[in-house]
Automatic annotation (TrEMBL):
InterPro entries listed in its UniProt record: DNA_helicase_UvrD/REP, HelD_bacillota, P-loop_NTPase, UvrD-like_ATP-bd
Annotated protein name in UniProt: RNA polymerase recycling motor HelD
Species name: Limosilactobacillus allomucosae
Gene that this sequence comes from: helD
Coiled coil: 19-81
Domain of life assignment: Bacteria
Keywords recorded for this protein, A-Z: ATP-binding, Coiled coil, Helicase, Hydrolase, Nucleotide-binding
All copies of domain UvrD-like helicase ATP-binding, residue ranges: 212-605
Keyword flag Transcription: no
Residues binding ATP: G233, V234, A235, G236, S237, G238, K239, T240
Length: 771
């Protein structure tokens, strides 16, 4: 058997040979791309010239259109061809840097010699396309690399389960074509390689983890059977990483049936969206769509200002009196059931539907009573949605018949008289004066056109269901609900009053959004989006059950992957993972749910994770990854002035060592104060981040913890973990989330006695100083 040195030499030769192959293919592809580019330019130029000739010189419009269409298709084809080549070139260039990261030797049944397969971020075939030089990490056979230990193994292929024997598994780190590190392993993916991957300094973008995907993560990535994949993973366990690789995997396996636009990810904030935006492109895939809950609601409530999770959190921390029990009720499963029950009620009581006048020129054009009568004339056995649709059609029909009358009105005559040349020209449309027999006909035509144009606004209102006042309907729904036992009558009354009052100011509280949207959709039979095949929801602990139920309803064709960590609850008291999973499963009732728990935490050093987990009631379940670093520091200052001095000193020390340092605070107000303190000393190195920011700068960043969700930093300073500063019921979630953002170093600063959540056990894991 060859010794380690000559093995490595042989492997380097294989790398060199692969790179030669890649270089040859790059050359060919580049030449093909150049000529494709020339062709596109020529076709586009031709198209441009033809298009302009057609517009001015050719009379036969139909013929000209079909010619244009042919040309357009030609342009589209050449552009597509060019895009494919460009993509191939990019993949080859990426592979050139690091052609692969793994090798498996397998011995198929009946074979004498094992076969070596190399695994990388994309596949590479030899010139005559008969053999794979590198297998894509998503190919069926590559599953063995992530899942199998040496010996008999099975892997899934489209043709069914296959068996083989895994005789060797080797991992590589290759940089700029040179093997930096290489070793054989019996495990799934050895710790040594992970150590290396995790020890790096952070940069502004999340990295892909293909080379070191762990077995449980691989289960998430390759799950194609479940309609609900629920991932509860402790902080830093690779949930976000795993789902991004999962998206790449799904795209690879359903190339023809799925594209990136049919996948949507609900991400916690804009910073996060930016942070993860490089992972899919680094795997040669297009990014999926991303939306924040805030953005989603903004679109669904146009014209209203929807309270965001952050706003609610900020107001709650200043005004804890707002009844949590009410929010819990409105955001729970029962309330959504009540919406359905209310719909039954409306089915039986058509007179309870809140129709509203459709006004035109400050007068009711269709009165609510009239609309109500049309609705009631529809067969009672129909669903509400169908009856409303019939009503809508009847209104549109009536509107059309009334255009004639309006056209004869005095005000139309006056407006027509006042039209300038352009206005008249627009009213004529395709017609010319020659098309009319006499002036009366011409006048009637123009009046009709003008009336139609003016009444467009009524048409749109009908089309958009503005003849039903859903906000008032929801208010009626609230009024008929039985008040939950835990809620005081006066609180319930003030919630009802508050709802109406907020509407007057065009505002709506977050807790009302899910039941209101649900009611509106069920009544109108609209609001569902069938185009999406996959919905991913990150940080599930921040979504109410009602919102998740609503999202399931809103994306009826989609499979859901919902992930989060019940113990990073910032906005509500902490829940045990088991409780949350049970609740979700019950509430969402999918047919093929799959629950995966990730317990190993990768992000932080062992010292940081050990401290973070000591805060949790069931923290001993978390497995720290063995990567050592300094003990986290706790500085207990006598007062805020001393705490500020400690902050300046710590920031200076950490800034010497690391590129990104985050100072994490409880809320926005404290982030501002901290920023001002730091800014005096560090000037432009320090940045205050808020809800609207989408780019994470390097240096020292100050942000409230809820904006740091899903992010990580080389070092983190948890600002003011004193008993006085942190609300008792949320202190665990807050400190846990702050601590788990740090990769290499963590400092906690407390102005006054430290929160009792950091008990004696936790203190022992810290380096403590008083200042
Ligand atoms: N298999 C892996 N190989 C290499 N790095 C990994 C692996 N799994 C996770 N990591 C790294 O661990 C860190 C945490 O991963 P990620 O952000 O995906 O975790 P998370 O569970 O979403 O965390 P949180 O809930 O705390 O936001 C990242 O730096 C990620 O690159």
């Amino acid at each position: 058997m060859a010794d380690e040195y000559s093995e490595r030499k042989l492997e380097q030769q294989r790398v060199d040979w692969t790179i030669q192959q890649i270089d040859a293919q790059i050359k060919k592809t580049q030449a093909a791309l150049d000529s494709a580019h020339k062709e596109t330019r020529a076709v586009e130029k031709n198209f441009g010239e033809n298009a302009s000739i057609n517009r001015y010189e050719v009379d036969d419009i139909a013929e000209s259109r079909s010619e244009l269409e042919q040309q357009r298709q030609l342009v589209a084809r050449t552009v597509e061809n060019e895009t494919i080549l460009r993509h191939q070139l990019q993949t080859l260039q990426q592979l050139r840097e690091s052609p692969y990261f793994g090798r498996i030797d397998i011995l198929d049944p009946g074979e004498k010699e094992p076969e070596s397969l190399y695994i990388g971020t994309a596949s590479l075939m030899n010139d005559d396309k008969t053999d794979f030089i590198v297998y894509d990490w998503r190919a069926p056979i590559s599953g063995i690399y992530y899942n199998g230990t040496l010996g008999k193994v099975q892997y899934q292929t489209p043709a069914g389960t296959q068996s083989t024997t895994l005789v060797k598994k080797r991992q590589f780190t290759i940089k700029d074509g040179q093997i930096i590190n290489m070793f054989d392993t019996n495990e799934t993916v050895g710790d040594q390689m992970l150590q290396e991957a995790l020890g790096h300094q952070n940069d502004q973008y999340m990295q892909n983890i293909v080379a070191t995907i762990q077995k449980e993560q691989n289960d998430i990535i390759r799950d194609t059977k479940s309609d609900l994949l629920l991932v509860q993973g402790v902080a830093g366990s690779g949930k976000t990483s795993a789902i991004l690789q999962r998206i790449a995997y799904l795209l690879y396996h359903s190339r023809t049936a799925l594209n990136a636009d049919q996948i949507v990810l609900f991400s916690p904030n804009l910073l996060f969206s930016h942070y993860i935006s490089d992972v899919l492109p680094s795997l040669g895939e297009r990014n999926m769509r991303q939306v924040t809950l805030e953005g989603f609601l903004r679109r669904r409530f146009e014209g209203l200002n929807v309270e965001s999770l952050f706003e609610r959190y900020e107001t709650r921390s200043q005004n804890p009196a707002i009844s949590l029990d009410i929010a819990n009720y409105l955001e729970g499963t029962d309330c959504m059931h009540q919406v359905k029950a209310y719909l039954e009620f409306l089915q039986q009581h058509p007179d309870a539907i809140c129709f509203t006048d459709l006004n035109f020129r400050q007068q009711p054009f269709f009165s609510a009573e009239h609309i109500q009568a049309i609705y009631q004339a529809q067969p009672a056995a129909m669903t509400i949605a169908d009856r409303l649709l019939k009503t809508k059609n009847a209104l549109i029909k009536e509107l059309k018949s009334r255009i004639q009358n309006v056209a004869k009105s005095d005000w139309i005559a006056k407006e027509l008289n006042d039209q300038d040349v352009i206005g008249l020209h627009n009213l004529y449309g395709q017609k010319t004066i020659d098309d009319f027999a006499d002036e009366d006909e011409q006048y009637a035509y123009l009046s009709y056109q003008l009336a139609k144009k003016r009444l467009r606004i009524v048409y749109d209102a009908i089309y958009n269901n503005y003849f039903i006042d859903f906000n008032s309907q929801y208010e009626k729904f609230l009024q008929q609900l039985s008040r939950p036992a835990a809620v005081k009558k006066s609180d319930w009354q003030s919630m009802l009053f508050g709802y109406r009052q907020q509407l007057e100011y065009h505002r709506i509280a977050l807790m009302h959004t899910a039941p209101l949207m649900y009611l509106r959709d069920l009544m109108s039979g609209s609001g569902q989006n069938r185009a999406f095949q996959y919905v991913f929801i990150d940080e599930m602990q921040d979504y109410s059950l009602a919102m998740l139920i609503y999202l399931k309803h809103a994306f009826p064709k989609a499979r859901f992957t919902i992930l989060g960590d019940s113990e990073q609850a910032l906005f509500k008291p902490l829940q045990l993972p088991g409780q949350l999973l049970q609740q979700l499963n019950d509430a969402l009732a999918f047919k093929h749910p799959n629950l995966i728990e990730l317990k190993r935490s990768y992000r932080s050093t062992m010292e940081i994770t050990d401290f973070a987990k000591s805060l949790l009631p069931d923290g001993d379940q978390i497995i720290s990854f063995t990567r050592h670093g300094a003990k986290p520091r706790l500085i207990t200052a006598a007062d805020s002035a001393d705490a500020a001095a400690a902050l300046l000193q710590q920031a200076a020390i950490l800034h010497e060592r690391y590129a990104t340092i985050a100072v994490l605070t409880k809320d926005r107000a404290q982030a501002k104060q901290v920023y001002q303190t730091l800014h005096r000393q560090f000037k432009s190195i320090v940045h205050l981040l808020d809800n609207q920011d989408s780019v994470l700068p390097v240096g020292i960043v100050v942000l409230p913890i809820y904006l740091a969700k899903g992010l990580e930093f080389d070092a983190a300073i948890a600002w003011n973990v004193s008993d006085q500063n942190l609300p008792a019921e949320r202190a665990v979630g807050l400190i846990y989330t702050m601590a788990s953002r740090a990769m290499h170093e963590l400092t906690l600063i407390s102005a006054g006695p430290v929160s009792s959540v950091i008990d004696q056990n936790a203190i022992q894991l810290l380096e403590t100083t008083k200042s």
